[in-house]
Design brief:
The protein has 6 helices and 16 strands. It has 285 residues and is an alpha+beta fold.
């Protein structure tokens, strides 16, 4: 565990217009990965995402939560990827290790430190489904835990995950967002701009975060994607999405993984910045 002087705090700003995330509909989930048939893949291609319930059972969810707790509590030697909510900066030195669980905003690069989370990221049926979308074997290239703690969990403004990745622009990328708590409209479940991936890259700006401009997203008609624990969302990395602040008393812990084809190469950051905006140097999802 890092000391208070070494701790990382999220630099993003708080406060957003509620109407930015006022959903006009709710996603209709599939039941399990076996339901991802050719019609579902066509729906993914058209809408940019699939909500799927009952992917992981209660035991797998509890194992994942235990693995996350191990990382936050400093039980995995060498792991330093934790970022705390900025609102907790002054309180952090006085918090017990247990209470720090509700001060964390996110952490990443953990699959090689925590085998239970590695197992979820490399779940054979999940990888098979992603491979069908990508057209070849997938390669995990990013892993994150997104905590959204009660009452203080900050907004993640509208963005495209593709704006963070130094990959050739024509590389398909699949994001996987796994709910470990019940994700609801009240505690900050995902909102998506259905079909928005067809419009291609959008300019991002460093405002409350590395984000699509609020003015561009004003008046959009987002779909909410609530999920039960063990459910997940598969989504195209060009799909605009965001999550509002968690003002509720409930946690909203989730895992997020990104996969690209095994054959995908890398590009210099300058190529990404030329497309998505020059203010995105060294940003993280």
């Amino acid at each position: 565990m890092k000391t208070e002087t070494e701790a990382q705090f999220d630099p993003g700003e708080t406060g957003h217009a509620p109407e930015l995330y006022a959903e006009v509909g709710v996603a209709e989930p599939l039941n399990g990965l076996d339901a991802v048939d050719e019609a579902a893949l066509a729906r993914y291609a058209e809408e940019g995402y699939l909500a799927i319930e009952n992917v992981f059972d209660a035991g797998e969810v509890q194992e994942a939560l235990a693995g996350m707790d191990n990382l936050v509590m400093g039980r995995r030697e060498g792991f330093t990827g934790i970022v705390f909510e900025n609102k907790e900066r002054d309180l952090l030195p006085a918090l017990s290790l247990e209470n720090r669980l509700d001060a964390v905003r996110k952490f990443g690069w953990f699959v090689n430190y925590e085998p239970r989370l590695h197992a979820l990221a490399h779940h054979p049926k999940l990888l098979s489904t992603i491979g069908r979308i990508l057209g070849e074997s997938p390669r995990l290239f990013q892993d994150m835990a997104l905590i959204k703690p009660p009452r203080i969990g900050r907004e993640k403004p509208w963005h495209q995950d593709r704006a963070y990745f130094d990959l050739p622009l024509d590389t398909p990328v699949v994001g996987v967002w796994i709910a470990l708590d019940e994700a609801t409209p009240e505690n900050g479940c995902m909102r998506v701009l259905q079909g928005g991936h067809h419009e291609g890259p959008r300019l991002h700006f460093q405002r409350r975060d590395w984000q699509i401009c609020d003015a561009e997203m004003a008046g959009v008609r987002p779909i909410a994607v609530p999920l039960r624990p063990g459910g997940l969302m598969l989504f195209d990395a060009l799909l605009p999405h965001g999550t509002p602040t968690n003002h509720s008393p409930n946690r909203r812990r989730a895992l997020q993984f990104h996969y690209c084809p095994q054959s995908a190469g890398k590009t210099p950051p300058e190529e990404r910045l030329a497309v998505f905006g020059s203010e995105g140097k060294n940003v993280t999802c």
